[in-house]
Every structure is written in structure tokens, then in C-alpha cells.
Amino acid sequence: MLNLDYQRDKIFESKKHIIEDLFKGDRDILIFGITNYTEPLINFLKEKGLIIKGIIDDYTEKERIFDIKILRSDQIDKNNIVISSIIEGRPKSVRNLLLNKGVNDLLDYFDFNYMYPNLFQIPFNSGNREKILNNQSELQFVADKLQDDLSKKFFQEVIDFRLNFNYWNKCFIYSPENQYFELFFNFENIFSFIDAGGYDGETTLNAFNKFRNLNKVIFIEPFPESMKLAKEKMSVLHNDKISFIETAISDHNTVKYITTHKGNANHLIDYGELTIRVSKLDEIVNEKIDFIKLDIEGEELKALKGAENLIKKFKPYIACCVYHDQNHFWQIPLFLLKINPGYKIYFSHYTEGICESVMYFI
Hints:
Layout lengths: L7 H7 L1 H9 L4 E4 L5 H10 L4 E5 L7 E2 L2 E4 L9 E4 L6 H10 L5 E3 H7 L12 H6 L2 H10 L3 H16 L27 E5 L5 H9 L5 E5 L3 H11 L7 E4 L2 E2 L4 E5 L9 E2 L4 E6 L1 H4 L6 E4 L5 H6 L2 H7 L2 E5 L6 H12 L5 E5 L7 E5 L1
Parallel strand pairs: 1-2, 1-5, 2-4, 5-6, 7-8, 7-14, 8-9, 10-13, 14-15
Antiparallel strand pairs: 3-4, 11-12, 11-13, 15-17, 16-17
Helix pairs in contact: 7-14
């Protein structure tokens, strides 16, 4: 049985003494990491009249950022209060590094989200508490459908993490190189592949390395700059096995706006400067497909609905990101089982943080 126990109040209570010390302003404060979440922390602390001694980053060549000195991890003093801005890739590794340096007064972006949720928002996690606790029977149904113990363990731990943000006691390992290419696939049976949300083409390049019988790829990416980058990267293949389609995919055909500054997370919006085509897979693909990968910033369920005929006819393997919307953890498997009851379901997670939870249908 899934164990879904809300513990954020207890977690915050255990850190309350550090928060109190922080706001006294008589301890050196460091922020760990330069991420999208660093600047909101800096602005908030400055508004509270607190002085930030430095930002810890071992990779940047800059000496200052946000007018704050850059320090290296070997310059951390164990008496500092350290606030981690790492929530996507390796938050657990950062915490372990700091603990190994003797730092005990650790806070993170998740703590500030708890205190001030409107100021410190967490992508892809809006309303998670209600979405999880109000849909426990649906989540349990999915958990019971998972085919192996590792899938069940990941599913339990990811749902618990998204409820409590307690990444430190999870089995998560940062392993993006394995994403979409798990051994429960029969690689020999994959001759055709749809890479939806292809971004820079890295997944397609990996597919050609993994699937030795692959002879057809339909590469789908809506953002023109990403499509250009992908074509340049894949020019090394020198083959005609790839069809490039510049479109978003959904459950209907239309034209919409897209963000232009989110990199690999550009997504559809209601208003903007750049318009793109939106298509149903059923209307742009009319050939047998063996494997569909979907990582399209929250449009996954709509895209699957727009591919219903394709899925019913060919029953392809599907690797679908579900982390963009908590409800997708149960809505997507219920939809796919409805149109193909024979699917076997697996689940995995490829970072130590909020991103890259993938559900597989075999």
C-alpha cells in the first residue's frame, strides 16, 4: 500500500531554530548554487535586511553574480547558515556534500516555499498536496499495476517527495543517461520512433545508438531555435532516416503562442510573441510506430488523446514524462489502459529533485 503521510509541518518545525537564527542576522549566510531559484532567494533576504556573504558555485568562471562574491565549496565554514537553491538535479548530493563539511545549519528553497508559497513557487508542483491526498485511490490503482518492485519503490518515493519535498531520504540517483532507454524494452523490436519534445536532438542520437534496427525517426519540436540546434547536432548522422516536423502536439489542431526564454522547458501559453502550429499525432503520422517518447511540458495527456487511433492500431511502446502535472501520475495510465488494456506499466525517476519522472507502457 502507498504510504501518503503529509509531513511538511513536522519537517519545518525541525528547522525552525535555523530559521530563527537566519532572521537574527548575526550569522554568515551563504547560498549554494546558481540556478533559476537563486535570485528570488537573494531578493527576499535583501528585503529582510540580511547580508549574503557569498554564493557557492564550483563551475562558474565569474567572480561575482547579483553583486555577490562567488565562493568555492572548499571555502564553506561549518558555522555558516547555508541555503541551497538546488531543487532539480542534485539536491541530495548537495546536502550530503555540506553535511560532510560539517555544516549542520542547512536550509533549502523548499523551506522558503513552505513559508512563502506565493514568492517561492516550485515548477510542476502546483496544488500537489490536494492532488495527491484527494486522489489516493487512483494513485493506489496505478501502484498496483506497476510490474516490478523497483517501479513500485520509485513510485512510492516520488509521490512522497512531491508531497513533502524530503529528498534526503530517497533512493534517487542522478542518471539522465538512462532516461527513456530502460532494459524492460525489447530494443530489437524498435524500428520506428517518435521523439516528441525533441529539443536539441540528444535523445534521438541516443536512440540510434541503442536501437540497432532503428530505420525511421519522426522528430517533433515546436520551438524554431531548438529545431535548428537539433538539425545541426544530427547532421553528423548523414542519413535520411529522420523526418523533422516543427509543431507542438495536442488533442486538436490549432495555432498557439509559445514561450521563448525557457530553453528545454519552452511551453504553450495563451499570449506571447511567437506563434507555432499545434497538431494531433493522428493527423501527422500515418505509418507504423514502435516507440513514442513524450516530454512536452505538461501537454502529454492531450497529446496522447490526439494519438488515440495511432496507439489503438499499433500499440507502440510509450515513454511519457508525468512530472509536469501531479494528476498525470494517474490520469495518463488510466487513459492508456482504457484504450489498450494490455499495456504493462513501469516507472522510474532520473534526478534527485523535481524533474524527470517517466512512466513506461510496454
